[in-house]
Write a structure and sequence with these properties.
- The protein folds into three domains: 2-84 and 99-134, no CATH class; 148-194; 200-316, no CATH class.
- Strands 1-2-6-5-4-3 form a six-stranded mixed sheet, with helices on one face. It has a six-stranded mixed sheet with strand order 7-8-11-10-9-12, sandwiched between helices.
- Helix 3 (148-157) packs antiparallel against helix 4, helix 3 crosses helix 5 and helix 4 packs across helix 5 (179-189).
- It is built from nine helices and twelve strands.
- The N and C termini lie far apart (52 Å).
- By secondary structure, it is α+β, with helices and mostly antiparallel strands.
């Protein structure tokens, strides 16, 4: 068992473990005792954190009372080997539901979470241990609120189709299914492709680091209360270098739950626009004057210096 310094370090290690198909993780960390939270509730909240971190949901198999704590055994909700068998209808007039259950996979899963005293007789410091076996990198858990064939279509297309493309096909089969349902299922299923951490800024940094051969990550001097992640697309910027005379700065707002704003710099070349640099920014916690302007200026200077860009014309979004 690997002992981590805190819960965050343990969950980050668990997330790294789930980048492989076959996961066999055993970790633990210590935390002060809290008399207001009982041992069973602490185990339940830990399982919920694992669900939020990994996007896999585990269901309870059984509870075990320990001498100085509590232990619960789980299995993956999508584990084919643990799927409940269908039962015969008791009421012959009952109408079968028109949706299939959650898609299942042979992931051979098990999750055991124990919360107990760190050492015999030492109740002030408690230990949480996590033991996970999971052997299939399947699609994340999602709510079964779509017809089975519609959910299957989304799962098959999630790697290479946009939600708008999938909506048309799903509604051709099931006209009552809304675009919001398709977008919601697609967003949840596609998390395995891009989500690396439950914190959006940390997730963006980790994803960019995975593609460091394709992007330039800009190191910016960040003011207190400002969150900023800036990067450029190497291949696009390299081909446009020395040819850019006109650029535009655009932005999107209210597209996520963290009040993060996404900015992009687009270069005009041969009557076409090419976005080649992006900035993820939040100034909600900063009290500095002109905080947004300063952050955008720092990013623009990084882009100018990195790619030697000196445009004659600059256009900005009307809201900037």
């Amino acid at each position: 068992v690997t002992v981590y310094k805190n819960a965050l370090a343990c969950y980050e290690a668990l997330q790294n473990a789930f980048k492989t198909v076959n996961v066999a993780f055993r970790g633990a960390y210590f935390m002060p005792a809290d008399p207001l939270v009982d041992d069973k509730e602490r185990v339940r909240s830990t399982a919920h954190e694992i669900w939020l971190t990994m996007a896999y949901r585990f269901r309870v198999q059984d509870h075990l009372q320990l001498k100085s704590g509590h232990k619960t055994c789980f299995w993956c909700c999508q584990d084919k080997g643990c799927k409940d068998q269908s039962k015969a209808r008791v009421n012959p007039k009952a109408r079968p539901r028109d949706t299939l259950g959650m898609h299942c996979f042979p992931c051979c899963s098990s999750l055991v979470i124990a919360f107990k005293d760190s050492h015999p007789g030492l109740s002030e410091l408690r230990a949480i241990s996590i033991n996970i076996q999971h052997h299939d990198s399947h699609i994340p858990y999602y709510k079964v609120d779509l017809p089975g064939d519609a959910a299957q279509l989304i799962a098959e297309r999630v790697h290479w189709s946009t939600p708008n493309e999938i909506v048309r096909e799903v509604q051709a089969m099931h006209p009552y299914v809304t675009a919001a349902q398709v977008h919601g299922a697609w967003s949840k299923m596609s998390e395995v492709l891009w989500k690396r951490h439950k914190d959006q800024v940390s997730s963006a940094k980790m994803l960019l680091d995975e593609f460091k051969n394709d992007v330039d990550f800009f190191i910016v001097d960040i003011s207190d209360g400002v969150e900023q992640v800036c990067w450029g697309i190497k291949q696009i910027a390299a081909q446009l270098q020395g040819k850019i005379v006109e650029i535009g700065l655009d932005a999107t707002y209210n597209t996520n739950s963290r009040h993060l704003e996404l900015y992009s710099i687009m270069a005009e070349y041969d009557i076409a626009g090419f976005p080649f640099s992006y900035c993820l920014l939040s100034t909600a916690s900063s009290i500095d004057i002109k905080k947004r302007t300063k952050a955008l200026r720092i990013w623009a200077e990084q882009v100018r210096d990195r790619y030697d860009i000196h445009p004659s014309f600059v256009h900005v979004n009307k809201d900037i």
